[in-house]
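Write out this protein's structure.
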Amino acid sequence: MELYTLLRHFADSWAMLALLLVFLGVVVWAFRPGSRRTHDDAANAIFRNDDRPARDSDAPATGASMKEAWK
């Protein structure tokens, strides 16, 4: 039996089964009980350091430096 044929049979059977088990493990881990807090924290991380909402007048003017625009 050639090496290619041996590897092909392995990939078609056991490797595919191993990849399926890894995929199912990741899905179960992501939807496990108690992970809601972790997912909510990751979803809201971009809003964590907001001090105040942005106003239309806060937009930097064309050609102005950031220090001048955010005074």
